[in-house]
Amino acid sequence: MPKPIYLDYNATTPHDPEVIAAMRPFLEEAFGNPSSSHFYGNAPQKAVADARSQVAELLGSRPEEIVFTSGGTESNNHALKGVAEAYADKGNHIITSRIEHPAILEVCQYLEKNGVAVTYVSVDDRGMVSAYEVEKAVTARTVLISIMHANNEVGTIQPLADIARIAKAKDILLHTDAAQSVGKIPTRVEELGVDLLSVAGHKIYAPKGVGALFIRNGIRLPRFMQGAGQESGRRPGTENVLEIVGLGKACEIAARDLEQNMTHMQHMRDRLYEGIRKKCVRIRVNGHPQHRLPNTLSISFEGLEANRILERIASRVAASAGAACHSDRIDVSGVLKAMAVPLSWAKGTLRLTTGRMTTEADIDHAIGVISQAVESLND
Ligand SMILES: Cc1ncc(COP(=O)(O)O)c(C=O)c1O
Question: Is residue 243 in contact with ligand 1, taking CB distance under 6 Å?
């Protein structure tokens, strides 16, 4: 039995063969501790330094502005909690959006219980945050604005450069959760105007459990945890050398092949949409028509239940739902709710996301499978 076609690249990505090759020596031979000053420490130490440069190169930052973490969640936690703690004397107000990932929203809720005020700005029906709304939310106590670069469900890309101008003018720090945008669109910290940026390795063909946080020079956050002096004392603990090497390689590839990957993913995504559009009635696309990740198709089938579509296609296509229907209730995703997608559409929403490994044959097959399932449920 062939495996289902993978159309869930926003959930995670397979390992790039070049990433596997780069990691292999650190799995098989180079086991030393990067802090050891003898022979065995040399290769791991150099590998961690090289990886830091590779991440910095992709983001257009300095290597010393990169701290390795366990992934997007940890990077986000540290950015928000770190700023709240370090800048408490300046203020206790954070601005974020209603469509952030739980790795931001849950942190905000935690901070709210600990004396921090949070404003959750709304989005329009295309999932776009308005820089004007952000500006209106600023108070004399605002220390941080955290707005995701691109949304994981609908792919809308936020106007970060505009928000950065506001943040800068008002001397407020700007963080972005770039877990979904890194490797899919340009993510240069100077162009975005951000002070902190979170990266998740497993969204860019590196392993799960590794990530990075860009912390602009001059921003003094507390230590992640207490321990020895690794990561310039900021995040102690013997480095996850194997996966850091994988993340570094993945960033090198992302920078090298960005244009080509963007074109490919978008071609696959648009082919998928065109194919479904020709065969299915009563569909709509969620997210911004232009300012959207090139790989993301959030598509709603009116009157259907996403879970029932996914059940029908499960052995042939792997994708995600934008809503879960239970016997007594329908859980629509917070993102679709914030975008005010009507319930009859929202409950039938699939997130189909393409990637580097997606082929035209995959897409053509998936179109047939999805449209057949939709047709049969519409009958
Ligand atoms: C936008 C966004 N932020 C953060 C995360 C969490 O990243 P990680 O799984 O590396 O902790 C994800 C993963 O789904 C994401 O899509």
Answer: no
